[in-house]
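ERR on first pass: missing label on line 2. Operator R.T. fixed the label and resubmitted. Corrected input:
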Amino acid sequence: MPAADVVVVGGGIVGCAVVQHLARALPDARIVLLDRGAIAGATSGSCMGHLMVTPDDAQHYALSATSVGMWRALADEAGGFDYNPTGALYLADSADDLALLPQLQQQFAQHGDAAAVLDARQLRELEPGLAHDLPGALFYRGDGVVLPMPACSAMLRLAQRANARVLVQPFTTVTAIERAGDRVAGVVTAGGRVAARHVVVAGGVWTPELAATAGVPRLPIVPRAGNLAITAHHASPIRTQLLEIAYLRVAHGAAQADPLQTAVDGGAHAVNMQPQSLGGCLIGSTRQFRGMDRTLNRELLHRSLLRAARYAPGLLQLPIVRTWVGLRPYSLDKLPLIGPWPHVDGLWIASGHEGLGVTLAPVTGHLIAQQIARRECAVDPTPYLPARCA
Amino acid sequence: MSGGSGDGGAGPGAVTFAFAGRSVTARAGTTIAMALWEHGTQVLRHSSRDGAPRGVLCNMGVCYECLVRIDGALVRACTTVVRGGMVVEPGGRP
Amino acid sequence: MTATIDADVGIIGAGPGGMAAALELARAGLAVVVLDEGLGAGGQIFRQLPPGHRARVPAPEPPSHAHGHRLLADLAASAVRVEARATVWDAAPGRLWFEQDGASRLLRCREIVLAPGAYDRCIPFPGWTLPGVITAGAAQVMVRGFGVRPGMRALVAGSGPLLLPTVTALLAARVRVVAALEAAPRRAMLAALPGVLRSGERLREAFYYARQLLRAGVRLRWGHTVFAVAGDGRVQRATIGRVDGDGRPLRATARELEVDVVCAGFGLVPSIELAQCLGCDVIWNAVRGGWCVATAAFGRTSRDDVYAVGEIAGIGGAEVALAEGRAAAAAIVGRRRGSAPPPAVERRVRAVRRAADAMLAAFPVLPGLFELADDATIVCRCEDVPRAQLRAAAAMHGATARAIKLGCRAGMGPCQARICGPNLQACNDAAIVRGGGPAFDVPVVQVPLKPVRTATILDAPRG
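pass 2 clean. output:
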């Protein structure tokens, strides 16, 4: 294969967003996207498409809100991935949960955003499919839902429109990233070498092993498995996307288990349900550290469905059509790695997003493209620089 | 018009149920799909994407084309035996 | 009714294979429970009218159906317990979870005999989603299983041995068969002959079919197929025509027929999902319908205590299923008693398999038939994905079945890719059909094996 300017390794949502933004920033560059399997064939083909604004601190808020804004723009420009600005309902199930709602509301307010606290009656009006004994909820308008797989194709189509030299090659395994001293030289594939000035590793849970081929000490990203289920079309008990308050603790709080002790984690779950545009409902989510194992954890699935049915009892009568497992790339310090690897010129990392890969893909693409093109970034990239792991 | 001899008048072993608001009489022991087919009704739902009429394809529980709605549940018309008083709605958007 | 049932042997499918195995095992004194998704025993081929129904018009039957009646009578007189309307949705060694009449139940056993049969292979063509287009199997179920007349003027089209029983079932229901179209070239008949001659049973059936068609003035047209179906919300017209030796439509020969039902059957696909869920190895066999459960003698699979019988070990028909059901039973009984099963039983299996293979080899899936569809033709019916979208997905995501699914959602609906799965790669590029080896992706299996209610999953008996 002829030499490239940039090779992006990993054709999931992050890799596709990187290609899309690079194509726009560098319309004459030769950009090659390689994936050992299908585009969106790994985690991006096994996840929920939740666009989640996280208000816990200013930087997280800036990153996620900016990215969700980019999703809106992408939907306007391209479409085809069922973008739906559903908002999100954070459901309280107890007095403790209820007490957290004003705090959550305050977090949004601190960033100049707004969320509404709903009492039991208002909640029933907004979402009649919910159990009648729920004491209240927070409704935040800024969240949304997308379909990740068609979003990948949409991003790549835009990339190819902006830059005629974008090459997308699935089923091409990168076996190593080559160096020439302290610089990246390119990648090695089964079909031969591809020389490149820049290599972006957007390999999800495979990022550490890919980066290691370039001499990068094992990056602190480990797989965190999630079980999902989906109902048939026209079989959703709810209209709005919803999460239970516990989700914030399970997903973004301290990991309840040691990420590196994969034999002992029994797994945790917290409800996150998403109505799809054709009326089915996606039901998640569970979290378990178990290495690369993608076999269904029936026990966790059971707990997850039971909990979902507690909030939306209509689910009990509805048919489940599929279940599957995806592996989130969990960063040990809970921040994604986005930026240059300090000791190898031309090597970039874009990974470690855990459950926010879909949300943060556009801003990740932006940050990588802007830094490669040496331009200004819309948000401060500093907290995410991989240098902190060096 | 396809269908049976159309004489499924109420009698011993007859069952009456509703489909899309219309009354249908069927032989006890038959399935919803076959009762409707005999009644001259082949359209069981409309496709979500383009509204096209859809009905039985495999008649043996494999293809899920014949989904209809009963009491909030989606079931295959070709594997569900008719019961008197059943209220059946087309599959598709409720 | 208890949620959990215990048995020595659990059998999936009450067709000829399952019934034969059940009867032999019961005769040996074992407690047998058979789970079947239908309303009663018989399977697809020996479908019976629901209890209490008399056919409005008595429907003549092919000679082989005598086997069915005998098996059913023996079954009723035996200690075998048949649980009908049972949809199996999860399995583990010695465990079969099923949904039955809204209840969530579990069958616990030691050995499992899988005889779930097969389903019709569908090849998409313009208008195939219209109400009134049904599979060849569906027509037989209608007539034999419910005494319902599929229509007044029928078109039967497809390929393979199933066309004849479909035509005769329609004739028995006094449907006018306007045309009966076999896509394979006429020489396929000669190619199939050795297989037919090898089996006295098949020869008798062949004469029966020939007689019925002759009497009704229906001629099987070789090298012909359905090109398209049209109508206002239902089947009203069909376009038919000739195809070349590869199945490619010769558009200049197209002509229109007035019909009100189209019965399309392009062979059978083995239902291997449950076997895959239990961890059995599968093997590609193009003659036997594609991906089949890999079996050794006596129906043994790669999993201890799991046996595969009949269509799932490769399409072969009732005669094969009967022989393999008996053989698997013999192996189970032998193992429990510490003795070897009689070799004659397995020899019989090999003989009937040879005959079946010889006949089926004459009717390969013709690659040209995948040109019947145009870009607007729906390929995945559950998700309404037209061929153009499927090809775009293949171009962007990759040309494997999985990549296509990811790119356009084909295969993600409630039929769990049973109908469209065998066609995803072929509709993208029919050349894959020509390739000799297993170029088609192995179907990916997941739980639930069939869609079931959330309550069924939550109420599933543990243990």
